[in-house]
Write a structure and sequence with these properties.
Blueprint: H1 2-16, E1 22-29, E2 40-43, E3 49-51, E4 57-62, E5 68-73, E6 76-82, E7 91-92, E8 102-104, E9 110-112, E10 120-124, H2 125-128, E11 147-152, E12 160-164, E13 177-180, E14 183-184, E15 213-219, H3 222-225, E16 236-241, E17 247-264, H4 292-297, E18 301-313, E19 317-329, E20 336-350, E21 355-369, H5 380-386, H6 394-398, E22 401-404, E23 409-412, H7 424-430, E24 433-449, E25 454-473, E26 487-510, E27 513-534, E28 560-562, E29 565-580, E30 584-595, E31 605-616, H8 617-620, E32 627-641, E33 653-654, E34 660-661, E35 674-687, E36 692-711, E37 720-743, E38 748-764, E39 771-773, E40 781-785, E41 792-795, E42 806-807, E43 821-825, E44 830-840, E45 843-853, E46 856-859, H9 860-868, H10 872-879, E47 883-889, E48 892-897, H11 899-906, E49 917-919, E50 922-936, E51 940-956, E52 964-965, E53 975-976, E54 982-993
Parallel strand pairs: 1-7, 11-52, 13-16, 42-47, 46-53
Antiparallel strand pairs: 1-4, 2-3, 2-5, 5-6, 8-9, 10-15, 11-12, 13-14, 15-16, 17-18, 17-54, 18-19, 19-20, 20-21, 21-24, 22-23, 24-25, 25-26, 26-27, 27-28, 27-29, 29-30, 30-31, 31-32, 32-35, 33-34, 35-36, 36-37, 37-38, 38-44, 39-40, 40-41, 41-43, 44-45, 45-50, 46-49, 47-48, 50-51, 51-54
């Protein structure tokens, strides 16, 4: 990595020697002659920029004598000034507000923000880079209203779940569509851990280079994403990448390093040990045992992120090249992550600038080793936390393996044979895993202008990923999961997405009426999970110990051919935008899809329309002077959502013995797509020369014709069949408040609040189905049922008498309900993100505070630790002579129960979950970045930044981080079962532009 970085720097320095530059200096003032601090100065057509200092002065090196500088400042009208050979350019900015900001919408189409009839929010790429998260999606948290982010606990390179405006499907996906430069991309999320074990396999978005991102636009609802059809039914995340700029070559180099340490882990006791050699620590005799082995197990994580980009070109041809390199190690030993990215983009104008040809190639090479596990099995944290306090841990740490003299093979050295725990050092050293991905995204774009009003474009994209997921289980491991000769998990497969579309665009004005028409057609084919797989476990092992080859597989271990899904989608679509006097706008769109997953049903073709209207009140009527801008909007959309692959006519399979396993699912030959209908109302008001703004949205989304599985009638010859039924409603409010409390010549402060709330309701199921179980396991369960919500969690509760006291049995054990009862919902009631930017001279400060309020979180970790007597609360109860309770026994009041009796009853695998349901509410300092900008040699702008992420909690109810997901599927939000501890990162970053 160091060699790569040095070579990159040498290359940059060589390039710099060939660049022409001219130094421009000057001062920027307001109309009264007062200097302005923090004015943005950008060389037009490039990413080269700077800001004014405390004296209103600036200095910038431009590429040519003909360069044009763009000056912009909050509350003032931007200005463009041609250098024309000058070395000093002074400027006075006039106050004013500009509302013709151009934003990217569906299909990559640019529109004026004021004309939009739907909600969207844009986050600049520079904001995502302030704290340098390896997966840039994590940096979206709190920056856009209505966007829920769940970060995996699997360490660097782990997956991230993004949900826009709540879950909308009982069985299908609620993930948004991710789009790069107007073209859909694959964002397949790999395997995920569960309550019983496993690890995160990453996702497609974690493979992108954040330094290539110009901006991210979130189209939150189907109203905004209707042109993308069924794949945009859950909203769209539009990623616009950087491209070449006209002018001499510009080089940008960025290098950062952050250190990762534990922020929060379970509160463990080291005062009481075991009795009689048991695996639990329920001694009643205090001791003074060494607990340093827990902290010593974890290491300081390290993330190194380096990036180099070169941009330049002429009026006809522009090019952009970048190289990114990431090297990281997690807090769990042996866990590493490495990624290399290469990006090349170019565009060329031909035929008198009528034809523009653009192309891009994005290459990724990603490798993750020994990603941390979660859940009970094969997780080093279970043995680490459970280890009896009176034993000597160092003997097992230093000698984690022993040789079996009877077989002459190694095995783990551990004090007990137990399905829940193993020697932590055996697991991280003798059960290595690797996740390899090699990915290429290539695109070609052709755009031809017949005139200034009429143009046609054609685009093609090929997204291909070759993936390997492998784990080798050395013989002598945990006998619950590992064969005596060792086991082998091997999965090699490819994901492929082919996309092409043609767009015809027409724009014209007829007096006060403006007309914009877009018509087009698209074709998309996806083939995911095509490959070969071997699944190893305690029964499926190797012929000869620890030889991990196909030739060493016994006959009962099947080598499977896999196919995750295959889908072809074709569509035609059109959009009409009418504007009147730039004050009234009407959007009409329609799209018809054909989906292969519906072939044979007669419903493979489905049409859906959308309509939207906007009225700019500040242009229609005279408003009070303090109101700078005001508009209201409404939109309605109806979008289909095709069903999963292989449901209409499932086929038979072949098992390991070579026999045919007959399909028992009834063909679904009358299947219809799910339908999502969305209504959205909004208003945007700006006050006091744009220093204060409100953007309000209310939405109501109804999902019907859900894809539901039911038990087949007796005698039908099938076990399951499917129906279209059910209804889910999501309704909520989004409020964005931005304010500039201070903008003086010496100081600038901008602040933004993103508030949102979402209410999810499962309105109805099917008459033959009362609920759908999702994630049923020991200690907790989750299910969907009419009148409930997606994310409802159910646990065993205490039985209580009519006075609310916990009822005890004859042995002083608390009684629990007969069945698991409703305990809350895992989603927050409302969320808030507060972002602040300060500029003072050459210094800038950004910090972000995020809060989640309401909802619940569940910890199986705390339950298991209590059952084993190793949590601090069990020691406190023993110190107090018993656990203090408000209980009753045979009607008599009981105030104290023996600690072991109490915690063995409520804790462990399937105890009483009520004490382990926590309020999810938490408020944290999510991000902090302090930057200093200067010039190196008076020509090279350099920015030094001190950065931090997830620094500390301002408020936390749960004993773990409820925003750190055990896995990033829908069913395990805010669940903790021996998750990797929450961490903070602190480091620095250097950026230089030549």
């Amino acid at each position: 990595m160091i060699r790569t970085t040095l070579l990159s720097l040498v290359f940059c320095l060589c390039m710099v020697g060939n660049l022409w530059s001219q130094q421009i200096t000057g001062t920027v003032t307001d109309p009264d002659g007062e200097v302005l601090i923090g004015v943005n100065i950008l060389e037009k057509g490039t990413s080269n920029g700077t800001i004014t200092d405390v004296d209103g002065a600036y200095s910038i090196s431009v590429s040519s004598a003909d360069a044009v500088l763009i000056f912009s400042y909050t509350g003032y009208s931007p200005q463009e000034v041609a250098v024309t050979g000058r070395s000093v350019v002074d400027l006075s900015l006039s106050q004013g507000v500009l509302f013709d900001e151009v934003v990217v919408t569906a299909l990559g189409i640019e529109r004026e923000k004021s004309s939009l009839t739907f909600a969207q929010q844009t986050v600049e790429g520079a904001e995502l880079l302030q704290a340098r998260d390896i997966n840039f999606l994590n940096s979206l948290s709190g920056r856009a209203a209505g966007v829920e982010i769940k970060k995996s606990s699997s360490g660097p390179g782990g997956s991230t779940r993004v949900v826009l405006r709540g879950d909308k499907s009982l069985n299908g996906s609620s993930d948004p569509l991710f789009v790069i430069d107007g073209i859909p991309m694959a964002n397949n999320r790999g395997g995920q851990p569960g309550m019983w074990g496993g690890f995160d396999s990453g996702d497609g978005m974690s493979q992108l280079n954040p330094d290539d991102i110009e901006s991210i636009t979130v189209l939150k609802g189907s109203n905004a994403a209707a042109l993308y059809g069924s794949q945009g039914a859950n909203g769209v995340v539009l990623i616009t990448t950087k491209q070449g700029k006209e002018g001499a070559a510009k080089v940008s180099v960025s290098s950062g390093i952050t250190f990762e340490s534990i922020l929060l882990k379970p509160d463990l006791q080291f005062k009481y040990g075991s009795e009689g050699g048991t695996k639990e620590s329920w001694s009643s005799t205090p001791g003074n045992y060494d607990g340093s082995y827990v902290d010593d197990f974890f290491q300081t994580g390290l993330n190194q992120i380096n990036s180099l980009s070169i941009s330049g070109g002429s009026a006809r041809t522009k090019a952009y090249f970048s190289f990114g390199n990431v090297g990281a190690r997690g807090i769990v030993p042996t866990n590493t992550y490495n990624r290399q990215n290469i990006t090349f983009k170019q565009s060329t104008k031909m035929l008198n600038d009528r034809l523009t040809i653009g192309s891009s190639v994005l290459l990724t090479n990603e490798r993750a080793k020994n990603r941390p596990a979660a859940g009970y099995y094969l997780n080093p944290l279970t043995g680490l936390y459970f280890f009896p306090r009176d034993r000597d841990f160092s003997s097992f740490r230093d000698n984690y393996s022993v040789t079996d003299p009877n077989r002459n093979v190694v095995g783990q050295n551990w004090f007990v044979i137990d399905h829940h725990q193993s020697n932590p050092y055996w697991l991280i050293n003798e059960q290595p895993s690797v996740h390899d991905t090699k990915r290429m995204i290539g695109s070609l774009n052709l755009d031809y202008k017949f005139s200034e009003k009429l143009s046609i474009s054609a685009r093609g994209n090929y997204d291909f990923a070759d993936k390997l997921i492998e784990q080798q289980f050395t013989s002598g491991g945990n006998t619950t999961n590992v064969h005596p000769n060792g086991s082998w998990d091997y999965f090699k497969f490819s994901d492929e997405l082919i996309y092409t579309d043609v767009l015809l665009k027409y724009n014209d004005n007829f007096g006060d009426l403006s007309v914009g028409v877009i018509g087009g057609s698209s074709y998309q084919k996806t083939t995911f999970g095509l490959g070969t797989r071997v699944d190893g476990n305690a029964n499926n092992g190797l012929l000869y110990p620890n030889e991990f080859y196909f030739q060493n597989l016994p006959p009962n271990v099947q080598v499977q051919s896999t196919l995750g899904s295959r889908l072809v989608k074709q569509a035609i679509f059109a959009n009409l935008t009418l504007g009147y006097k730039e004050m009234l706008y009407l959007d009409l769109s329609g799209r018809n899809d054909w989906a292969s997953s519906l072939a044979g049903t007669g419903n493979e073709s489905y049409f859906y329309p959308s309509i939207g209207a906007t009225a700019i009140l500040s242009e229609m009527v005279e408003l009070p002077e303090f109101i700078t801008f005001a508009k209201v909007r409404f939109s309605n959309a109806r979008v289909g959502n095709e069903v999963p692959f292989n449901r209409v006519n499932p086929q038979n399979t072949i098992n390991a013995a070579g026999a045919v396993s007959r399909n028992t699912q009834q063909p679904f030959d009358n299947l219809s797509p799910e339908i999502i209908t969305s209504n959205e109302f909004g208003a945007n008001v700006r006050f006091f020369d744009d220093r204060f703004g409100l953007d309000f949205t209310y939405y109501n989304t109804k999902s019907t014709d859900q894809f539901i599985s039911l038990p087949a009638p007796s005698g039908s010859g099938f076990t399951r069949f499917f129906v279209n039924a059910g209804e889910i409603v999501n309704r909520g409010i989004e409020l964005i408040v931005d304010v500039t409390p201070i903008y003086t010549p010496k100081f600038l402060w901008k602040s933004t609040f993103n508030f949102w709330t979402n209410e999810n309701e499962v309105v109805e199921m099917h008459p033959d189905l009362t609920s759908i179980t999702t994630g049923q396991s020991e200690g907790y369960g989750s299910r969907f049922e009419a009148g409930g919500s997606i994310g409802d969690v159910f646990v065993f509760l205490f039985q209580r008498d009519d006075q609310g006291r916990i009822m005890l049995d004859d042995n002083d054990r608390p009684l629990k309900t007969q069945t698991q009862e409703f305990a809350g919902n895992l989603n927050p009631n409302w969320s808030l993100g507060w972002n602040n930017d300060f500029n003072f001279g050459k210094f800038s400060l950004n910090f972000q505070i995020n809060g989640k309020f309401g909802g619940v979180a569940f910890s199986q970790t705390e339950s298991m630790l209590d059952g084993a007597g190793v949590s601090q609360r069990t020691a406190d109860a023993r110190d107090a002579g018993g656990f203090q309770v408000n209980a009753s026994k045979d009607g008599a009041a009981v105030n104290s129960v023996d600690a072991e009796t109490w915690f063995r009853a409520i804790g462990d695998r399937n105890g009483i979950g009520e004490p382990y349901i926590y309020d999810r509410t938490n408020v944290r300092l999510t991000q902090l970045a302090l930057s200093y900008q200067t010039n190196f040699g008076k020509k090279v702008p350099v920015t030094f930044s001190l950065v931090g992420q997830n620094l500390f909690f301002l408020h936390l109810e749960a004993p773990f981080d409820p925003e750190l997901a055990m896995n990033t599927s829908r069913n395990s939000a805010s669940l903790d079962n021996f998750n990797t501890p929450a961490t903070r990162t602190i480091g620095f970053n250097i950026n230089a532009n030549f």
